[in-house]
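Quick one:
INPUT:
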């Protein structure tokens, strides 16, 4: 990665990099209301007139190029939009896409980020962020295709605050016919909520174009060769201090305890906290996860064991090796990977399958763990006579070709229904199933859950692990990608909600969101871990989300 073209982190993740210079002739239309002068330039008028033609002739890229409709310079949009500029937040829906942006057909034009309204915000306001990818020459050798309504391009973008807070930008295609056409201009947008005080700048790059994030069926994962995005220096949004901000760290300890399973939050360095965080589990960068609307209390593994015995005589966990890592913590009362010396070992950082472990048999499909309130999960056996029993069922998602079909996990057992069944999917499914096969198996799973458990059993859906920053070029060729995994998660959550939303209690254990909010450099540490397990420090924090939800 010596070539800076191929190394977006070098150019876009380094604040002092010269590549942050404002592009000369095209790119972000930073708006500075005090500076703007002209209204519609002549060139702009011509472009606007052309729009009607473009609407009819979608493949009009060549026409517009011939008529020399230049890419927009910052001065164009300044003039138009400054008429409406006022302080405070503006949603993307209130900020029309600059018509010029739809005419970017120069094959060499670079993709760029635009923030059409840069006025200062109060904590909790939204800012509209857009990414514009100019049209390119058709390339028929590209045979990847996105899921229906999903983007052609995978753009990894964050709003990064001066305090180190990183807020993911969840981009969606702007609803226009162009979004469905592979080689057209593609414009994505998101309304991003910024709650922490500070100056924010976009940081990111294009992971994949031409739907290469979605290697379905016989297609193999595409090589990961990210492309840079132009990000102008003017694209800075300030969230100004506000005495009454409910998100202020100074108020964190006054928040009610978290009662939801996936509270939105951010990572903050322990050194920046105005309160004592010594009991909170931190990641390997000394950051703690703090929800915005509620407070996580540290629940020890022993307290969790007591909570299980009191409130949950039976819990079922269905999942892969990530659930195994969670259970290693639970059954050792937190001792697994707890010392400083252990934490950097392979088992704690990434792959633990082969390490010796004496609390349960990691090779078994089905493990019953008896939890007692004195020693916690100190004993693993098939003797389910104690007060609380966790039944852990290992599966490889709902993929085809496991040595035991996943649905065997729902064969009648004669055991009473659990209070909670945790169902963890995505990791194997995104890697090995087609979307169509997965949809069919998921619907079978929903039926089995429905007929196996009474409506009194609560379902907790655990998302897949966050995945980014690479393709699997190991011999496994897992078809993971950041966007593909995210879309599998979304699909699963919607399917469960649709099926069970009214009938039974349903919650989401969003472990992906934890990693998605980490600073990019921390996320990129995962590239050396093929199995995409999170470090044991993060396993602890994932567990805290569940424990707070179940026991507060
Ligand atoms: C992530 O880290 C790897 C290896 O440490 C590095 O080669 C790569 O350039 C980084 N990725 C990005 C997108 O910066
Ligand atoms: C089309 O895409 C293929 C696969 O990435 C690439 O090798 C080829 O150079 C592209 N052709 C053009 C004309 O860009
Ligand atoms: C673990 O590794 C990190 C980075 O490689 C290093 O900074 C840290 O000191 C190590 N910790 C221990 C306890 O070895
Ligand atoms: C199960 O546990 C009970 C009480 O702890 C004990 O009496 C019984 O023998 C055990 N059964 C098996 C099969 O281990
Ligand atoms: C569960 O709830 C649904 C929706 O309220 C209802 O149709 C169904 O009969 C219930 N199932 C049982 C076993 O009670």
């Amino acid at each position: 990665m010596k070539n800076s073209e191929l190394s977006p982190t070098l150019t876009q993740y380094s604040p002092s990099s010269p590549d942050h210079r404002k592009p000369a002739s095209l790119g972000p239309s930073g708006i500075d209301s005090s500076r703007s002068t002209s209204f519609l330039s002549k060139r702009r008028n011509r472009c606007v007139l052309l729009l009607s033609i473009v609407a009819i002739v979608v493949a009009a890229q060549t026409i517009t190029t011939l008529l020399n409709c230049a890419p927009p310079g910052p001065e164009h949009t300044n003039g138009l939009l400054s008429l409406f500029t006022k302080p405070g937040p503006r949603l993307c829906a209130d900020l029309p896409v600059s018509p010029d942006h739809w005419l970017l057909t120069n094959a060499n034009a670079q993709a760029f980020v635009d923030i059409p309204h840069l006025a200062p915000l109060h904590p909790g306001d939204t800012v509209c962020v857009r990414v514009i990818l100019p049209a390119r020459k058709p390339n028929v050798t590209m045979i990847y295709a996105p899921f229906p309504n999903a983007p052609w391009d995978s753009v990894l973008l964050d709003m990064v605050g001066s305090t180190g807070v990183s807020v993911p930008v969840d981009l969606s295609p702007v609803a226009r016919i162009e979004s469905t056409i592979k080689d057209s201009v593609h414009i994505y947008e998101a309304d991003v909520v910024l709650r922490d005080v500070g100056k924010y700048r976009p940081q990111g790059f294009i992971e994949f174009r031409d739907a290469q994030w979605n290697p379905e069926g016989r297609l193999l994962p595409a090589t990961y060769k990210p492309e840079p995005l132009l990000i102008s220096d003017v694209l800075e949004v300030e969230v100004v201090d506000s005495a009454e901000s409910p998100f202020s760290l100074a108020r964190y300890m006054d928040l009610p305890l978290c009662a939801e399973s996936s509270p939105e939050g951010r990572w903050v360095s322990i050194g920046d906290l105005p309160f004592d965080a010594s009991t909170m589990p931190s990641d390997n960068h000394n950051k703690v996860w703090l929800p915005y609307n509620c407070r996580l209390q540290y629940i020890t593994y022993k307290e969790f064991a007591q909570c299980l015995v009191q409130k949950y005589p039976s819990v079922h966990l269905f999942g892969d090796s990530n659930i195994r890592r969670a259970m290693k913590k639970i059954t050792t009362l937190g001792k697994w990977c707890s010392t400083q010396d252990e934490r950097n070992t392979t088992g704690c950082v990434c792959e633990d399958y082969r390490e010796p472990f004496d609390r349960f048999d990691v090779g078994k499909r089905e493990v019953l763990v008896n939890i007692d309130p004195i020693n916690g999960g100190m004993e693993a056996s098939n003797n389910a006579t104690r007060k609380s029993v966790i039944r852990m069922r290992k599966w490889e998602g709902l993929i085809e070709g496991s040595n035991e079909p996943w649905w065997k996990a729902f064969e009648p057992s004669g055991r009473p229904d659990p209070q909670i069944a945790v169902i963890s999917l995505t990791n194997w499914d995104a890697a090995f199933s087609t979307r169509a096969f997965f949809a069919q198996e998921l619907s079978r799973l929903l039926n089995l859950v429905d007929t196996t458990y009474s409506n009194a059993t609560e379902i907790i859906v655990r998302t897949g692990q966050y995945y980014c920053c690479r393709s699997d070029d190991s011999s496994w060729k897992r078809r993971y990608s950041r966007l593909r995994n995210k879309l599998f998660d979304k699909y699963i959550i919607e399917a469960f909600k649709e099926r069970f939303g009214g009938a039974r209690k349903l919650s989401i254990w969003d472990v992906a969101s934890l990693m998605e909010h980490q600073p990019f450099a921390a996320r990129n540490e995962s590239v050396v871990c093929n199995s995409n397990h999170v470090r044991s420090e993060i396993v602890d924090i994932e567990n805290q989300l569940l424990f707070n939800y179940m026991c507060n």
